[in-house]
Amino acid sequence: MNDISDVECAYGESSRKGTVFIAAIGVCTLTAFLISLCVGPVTIGIEDVLRSIGHSVVPDLVGGPEKPWYQNIVINGRMSRSLLCILCGISLGISGAVMQNILRNPLVSPFTLGVSSAASFGAAMAIVFGPALFGTLMTGSVDILGMEFLNENLIIVLFAFLSGMLSIFIVIMLSRRRDISRSTIILAGVIISYLFQAGVSLAKYMSTDDALREITLWLMGGMWNASWSVDAILIPMVLICFILLESMSVRVNILSAGDEVAESLGVNVSRLRTTGLVVSTLMTSACLAFTGVIGFIGLMAPHICRMFIGNDSRFLFPAASLLGALILIVSDTVARIVISPEELPVGIIMYIIGGIFFIWLISRRNKEVNM
Questions:
Q1: Under a CB-based contact definition with an 8 Å cutoff, are residues 103 and 312 in contact?
Q2: DSSP states of 48-91 as a string?
Q3: What is the pLDDT along the chain (371 residues), one digit of tens a residue?
Q4: CA 351, chain centre distance (Å)
Q5: DSSP structure string for 150-209
Q6: I need a labelling partner for 358 at 20 to 30 A (CA). Which of 3, 111, 121, 211 fits?
Q7: Which DSSP string do the residues of 22-47 spell out, in sequence order?
């Protein structure tokens, strides 16, 4: 009885720790979101930011900001951009956690499995060869849900999305083989990434000056395509994928005991892995298609969360998604103000943060080994 009681106490303590951590990260993300609406080439006070938001939602109850143009800056400029950061951060964070847990390898992420490189390849192909393939269709626009989208952007997004899905299907086919180890799957992801990078290099070599500049900016990663129309497309997709992945968390926990144990408990391991990888890639590719390549979040966020709350997928998935959103929105805010009024691509900030993080992580593990 004492053993059962100890297990229940440990389980309760773990659940409380996970809940408190998620709540704390949620508060930090909301704070970072509000700060991102305040800072920029034009600094706007928090009261005017809240008035701008309130006036857009309930104009009869809340008055507008002190200066009328603040409303447009906050709502149509910064808010749609910050929301895109949150959506992309959530997608990368939870996708990294899911991929790591279902493949039982802490180095797995959309970046290391080749999804980012594949999406880059698709976007580069659309930028360089789209005009030849689609002709005048590239110059038009289409109305979706009352919002106007340039055909060129939609074609780039479609190519990036399909290429990202192609890369993960190759990984899925390999993961189904019994004689393939998990480390080999990582190596396969690296090889796939190099193959798609070769395709990107080919596209650069064959591109015009304007196309080369567009490819280069896309590869750096940024929130330049942010708009409410983009957010309207991503919100339902990210929400549905998040719910699907979170609903798999208990089965993913069982999978951590090993494939044989999971199968003996009624878990269809092959279907679980396939579904997890496909849904993760679906939401990641959709976001990266609009933002370009943003690396390291899928690796960093799950690692940091495990240090505080362990590997329980029920808490790790939402915690990693919120932390991913926090990292990206802070990075984008820094990118907007560091050389204001100009801005840096957020991908540059992420490479710096990711490099520093993994240098620290390697140093920390070396110290633990030496001790």
A1: no
A2: HHHHHHHHHH-TTTS---SSTHHHHIIIIIIIHHHHHHHHHHHH
A3: 455 555 455 556 778 888 999 999 999 999 999 999 999 888 888 998 998 888 888 887 888 788 888 888 888 889 999 999 999 999 999 999 998 898 887 778 887 778 888 888 888 888 888 887 777 776 777 776 666 777 777 787 788 888 888 888 887 777 666 666 666 777 777 888 888 889 888 888 888 888 888 888 878 888 887 888 888 888 998 999 999 999 999 999 998 888 788 888 888 888 888 899 889 988 888 888 788 888 789 888 999 999 899 888 999 999 999 999 999 999 999 988 888 777 888 888 888 888 888 787 777 665 554 55
A4: 14
A5: EHHHHHHHHHHHHHHHHHHHHHHHHHT-TT--HHHHHHHHHHHHHHHHHHHHHHHHHS-H
A6: 121
A7: HHHHHHHHHHHHHHHHH-SSS---HH
Q: Please tell me the pTM assigned to this model.
A: 0.88
CB-based contact 77:224 (threshold 8 Å): no
Alpha-carbon distances, residue 155 vs 162, 236, 368 (angstroms): 11, 20, 49
Measured distance between the N- and C-terminal CA atoms of the chain, rounded to whole angstroms? 36
* Element holding 277 (H helix, E strand): helix 269-291
How far apart CA 105 and CA 175 sit, in angstroms, is 13
Q: What is the DSSP-derived secondary structure letter of residue 105?
A: -
Look up residue 142 and give its two tokens: 């289409």
Q: What is the rounded CA–CA span in Å between residue 71 and residue 52? A: 5
Residue with tokens 């409380």: 16
Q: Single out the residue of 27, 44, 31 nearest to residue 337, CA to CA.
A: 44
Phi/psi at 141 (5° precision):
-145, 165
Phi, psi (rounded to 5 degrees) for 216 = -60, -45
